[in-house]
Structure formats: C-alpha cells, structure tokens
Amino acid sequence: MVQQPKVLLVEDEFAQREVLAYNLEAEGFDVIQADNGEDALLLVDEDHPDMIILDWMMPKVSGIEVCRRLKMRPETRAIPIIILSARADEVDRVRGLETGADDYVIKPYSMVELMARARAQIRRVRPSTVGMVLQFDDIRLDAESHRVYRGDKVLRLGPTEFRLLTAFMEKPGRVWSRDQLLDRVWGRDIYVDTRTVDVHVGRLRKTLCAHGHYDPIRTVRGSGYALG
C-alpha cells in the first residue's frame, strides 16, 4: 500500500479548517493542521508534508511570509503551496504567485475545485498515489498493479521495500535522511529504530541487483540515501 500523501493545512479559522480537513481526508490525504504561521513552519520541519494549503491572513507569521521563507530554503522549495485568500485583486494574486505559491485560490471557493487543485499538485510530487507508472533508468514501478520491473525481469519486493522504492523513484537524486524515510515509509505514529531503515534498504538493494544489475541506490555518508 502506498503511503497517503501528507498535507499541512494552515488556517486560523477553526470552522473552515475543520471543513477543509474533512474534505481532504475524504480525498485520501493524511492531514496535519496548524492555526498560525509560526506553528506551520515548525510542522514543516517535523512532518515533511508533501503539500501545504495555506491561508494568507494569519496571526504571528502571515501565510505569504511562510510561503516566502519555505521557497527560499533548498530543502522545502519543492513543496507545492496553495494559498487561500479573500484578496481578489490582481496585484495580490500576482504577489502570491511571485512569492512562490504554486496556486492561488480566492475565498469563497468551491470545495470541489479546491480538491481538484490539490490533486493536481500532488500528481506532480507524489505520482504513485494516483496510480502513475514511475520510471528510473531500467527500473519501472507500477503503483496500481504493485509490480516492479528491472529491464524485462519482474522483481519481487516486500511491502516495505516497495514503499521505499516508491519514495526513491518519486524524487530521484533527492537525499533522504533515515528519519525522513521512517516518516514516509512507516508513518510518523509508529516507533521504528533508524537502523531498521538500513536493513530494508539492504534488502531492496539485494533485489534490485539480483540479476547482475548495478546498484542504483547511493549511500550519502552522514546524511542518508538517494536514488541515482
């Protein structure tokens, strides 16, 4: 089973946040919540969300400032951000997008349209969650049929190794720390020792190289692992 895409929802109005969270969970998202920009920045570092839905007007740190800070940092720059705002003027929409937002939705919004926009952003960063086939070199992963091929050979992977490979193939070249892999593959509510990551990466490597192929997984000393 592919890990649910994780969305950080940042909205200071409780009723709106609850309705949004309900609809996002109904769409299959794992939702974490914050009611101000300061907490949102902390949660990004703690929970590593796949996408952020961010209200512009918030206490402590505004949504536009949260967006600016995240897009300036190399480790968070690629996280898609959808800004929600009652500011409908062209100058505000342009400011939001030029600050780095990937989408800008004006309040009041259609929930159906917002969910469609959220799915569109997730398709870019977590394509396996919508059943797309991932390809890296001669490795092909079909998330819908849960099959992995290397060249013309079918590879037999356990569920944990499959989720590990999915994370690697969704972001080739990205260096994943052991904690980040634990969060993505096992989930943040389950305690697993970081050494467990090394064991499962070893199993994945063994399967990928079973037919004499080169090892595509790179160990980055002091940091973690990367594909390619």
Which terms would index this structure?
transcription; five-stranded parallel sheet; phosphoprotein; elongated; alpha/beta; 228 residues; 8 helices; four-stranded antiparallel sheet
Could you please describe the fold and organization of this structure?
It comes from Paragemmobacter amnigenus. It is found in: Cytoplasm. By secondary structure, this protein is an alpha/beta fold. The chain has helices spanning 14-26, 37-47, 63-72, 90-99, 111-125, 159-170, 178-186, 194-208, and strands at 6-10, 30-34, 51-55, 81-85, 103-106, 133-136, 139-142, 147-150, 153-155, 217-220, 224-227. The chain contains eight helices and eleven strands. It has a five-stranded parallel beta sheet, with helices on both faces. The protein has a four-stranded antiparallel beta sheet with strand order 6-7-8-9, covered by helices on one side. It has a two-stranded antiparallel sheet with strand order 10-11. Helix 2 runs parallel beside helix 3. It is elongated, with a radius of gyration of 19 Å. The mean pLDDT is 91.
Brief write-up:
This protein has helices spanning 14-26, 37-47, 63-72, 90-99, 111-125, 159-170, 178-186, 194-208, and strands at 6-10, 30-34, 51-55, 81-85, 103-106, 133-136, 139-142, 147-150, 153-155, 217-220, 224-227. The protein has 228 residues and is of the alpha/beta class.
Our Rg estimate from Cα atoms comes to 19 Å
The helix content is 40-55%
Alpha carbon gap, first and last residue? 24 Å
Give the overall shape.
elongated
Structural class label = alpha/beta
Main location: cytoplasm
Function: This protein is a positive regulator for the phosphate regulon. Transcription of this operon is positively regulated by PhoB and PhoR when phosphate is limited.
Pfam families: Response_reg (PF00072), Trans_reg_C (PF00486)
Subcellular location: Cytoplasm
